[in-house]
Amino acid sequence: MAQKSVLMPLVLAAALCVLALNTAFVGTQQPALRASRSRVARQAGDVYEIFVTASSVGMRTRMNVTPETTIASIVEDARKSLGFDQPFLDSSDFKVYRKEDESTPIGGKMGDMELKPWGPEGIELHVKYEPAV
């Protein structure tokens, strides 16, 4: 009987340790999913990798886009990826700029931006939160 009373807490402690290790590192499973999606997307052809940076907070994410990908969908994906998808922040308040020219926000489709394979001359977009006053 004494052996059963000692064994049960040990089993519970081991189960809690396994559960804690699976959830302790936030996002450990997400990159693997993102990588597999990236591979599938690249096999489809006409897929380009871009960087999207929120320069005000120093955060950056990579995205795979096609010529048909809209700037509005990039804003939505970037908000989710960078943690800016709170309901009190309107998507319309996020403006997107090319890294080379932050004087004018861009819109439309990525196909209008001279897409090319990622490299030193690849496309980097800056997303900025600029609410209307």
From TrEMBL:
The alphabetized UniProt keywords are: Signal
Judging by the UniProt lineage, the source's domain of life is Eukaryota
- Signal peptide bounds: 1-20
What is the name attached to this protein's record?
Uncharacterized protein
Q: Which organism is it from?
A: Kryptoperidinium triquetrum
